[in-house]
């Protein structure tokens, strides 16, 4: 049995279809004072998978997820899997400054305390967040789904670019699937909405220390890949550098298209040809469905 929270209804419906499982209806509404009402309709199966991302509005979506999990257990479900394609608060996995709340830890503890028996997410910003769980927790990759979606007719001329070193693993994974080169840029974060991308620190093979001349960008169909696009500042900087070095075409891919602060417009204005995100979050750019990847993981 599959249940979709209000943030992931379409995705849940497609996962249920892939698996040929029942999609259970959840009634949610808000009382006049803003409190949430939730009712799960139908007979509860022994094993239930709840699909609910906890992006904006994070606190509401999280509360709904907790209500669904706890209610399922209360109604007799023996095993509840929480599939949270995008996990909000995952970027605060430690105290960067004294006195800060380790938000990611609290979120994991709440999901577990609500009764989740297993947790599944996609490309979580820091994999160490999953260590906050005592239940089995899996971090799936959206790279195969994104790579499959891309038009690979000019694969020979494609160059996969990570906009910072942290995203280089994604670029490597994509380039292996597609069969083209990859590299990364270097980025310094100056604040929550300000980044500086410095130079093309080009390296196509992390095993060898061979660096590739910046000329290798010239004439290439550049595909930028990142886990999250939030304000778009990181991507805009990357696009500017790639244009400067003569990329012929630039597409932008990400797993989690948060795209706040007019990020979409800023990225297109900077010169992107396409923005391709997954439906871990609903947005105009959520073109790649994670339904099959989730269904495969649940099988
Ligand atoms: C951080 O390193 C992430 O991988 C993303 O690069 C970051 O969250 C993107 O943020 P923004 O779009 O605001 O630059």
Q: Can you describe what's shown?
A:
This protein is α/β, with parallel strands linked by helices. Strands 11-10-9-12-13-14-15 form a 7-stranded mixed sheet. It has a 6-stranded parallel sheet with strand order 2-1-5-6-7-8, sandwiched between helices. Helix 1 packs across helix 8 and helix 2 packs parallel to helix 3. About 4% of the residues have low confidence. The structure holds ribose-5-phosphate (R5P).
Shape: globular
Number of strands: 15
* CATH domain fold name of the largest domain: Rossmann fold
What is the highest CATH level, the class of the largest domain? Alpha Beta
What percent of the residues sit in helical stretches (DSSP H or I)? Answer: 25-40%
Mean pLDDT: 92
Radius of gyration: 20 Å
Query: What proportion strand?
Result: 25-35%
Figure out the total of helices. 8
Computed structural class: alpha/beta
In CATH terms, what is the architecture of the largest domain? 3-Layer(aba) Sandwich
Topology:
Blueprint lengths: L1 E3 L4 H11 L3 E2 L1 E5 L5 E5 L6 E5 L6 H17 L4 E6 L18 H12 L3 E5 L14 E4 L2 H7 L8 E5 L5 H11 L2 E11 L2 E8 L19 E9 L3 H12 L4 E9 L5 H8 L3 E5 L7 E3 L2 H8 L1
Parallel strand pairs: 1-2, 1-5, 5-6, 6-7, 7-8, 9-10, 9-12, 12-13, 13-14, 14-15
Antiparallel strand pairs: 3-4, 10-11
Helix pairs in contact: 1-8, 2-3, 4-5, 6-7
The structure holds ribose-5-phosphate.
């Amino acid at each position: 049995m599959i249940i979709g929270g209000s943030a992931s209804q379409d995705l849940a419906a497609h996962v249920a279809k892939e698996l040929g499982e029942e999609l259970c209806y959840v009634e949610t509404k808000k009382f006049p004072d803003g409190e949430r009402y939730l009712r799960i309709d139908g007979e509860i199966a022994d094993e239930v998978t709840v699909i609910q991302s906890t992006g904006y509005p994070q606190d509401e979506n999280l509360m709904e997820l907790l209500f669904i999990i706890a209610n399922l257990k209360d109604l007799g479900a023996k095993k509840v899997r929480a599939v949270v394609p995008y996990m909000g608060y995952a970027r605060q996995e430690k105290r960067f400054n004294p006195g800060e709340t380790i938000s990611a830890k609290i979120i994991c503890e709440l999901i577990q305390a609500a009764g989740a028996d297993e947790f599944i997410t996609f490309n979580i910003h820091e994999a160490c967040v999953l260590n906050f769980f005592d239940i089995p927790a899996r971090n799936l990759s959206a790279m195969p789904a994104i790579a499959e979606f891309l038009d690979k007719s000019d694969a020979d001329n494609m160059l996969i670019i990570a906009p910072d070193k942290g995203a280089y693993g994604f670029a490597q994974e994509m380039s292996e699937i597609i069969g083209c080169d990859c590299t990364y840029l270097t980025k310094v974060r100056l604040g929550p909405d300000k980044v500086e991308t410095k130079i093309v620190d080009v390296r196509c093979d992390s095993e060898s220390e061979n660096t590739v001349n910046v000329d290798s960008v010239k004439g290439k169909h550049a595909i930028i890949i990142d886990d999250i696009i939030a304000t778009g500042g990181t991507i805009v900087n990357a696009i500017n550098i790639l244009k400067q070095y003569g990329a012929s075409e630039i597409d932008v891919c990400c797993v989690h298209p948060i795209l706040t602060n007019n990020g979409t417009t800023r990225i297109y204005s900077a010169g992107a040809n396409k923005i391709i995100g997954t439906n871990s979050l609903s947005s105009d750019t959520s073109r790649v469905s994670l339904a099959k990847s989730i269904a495969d993981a649940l099988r």
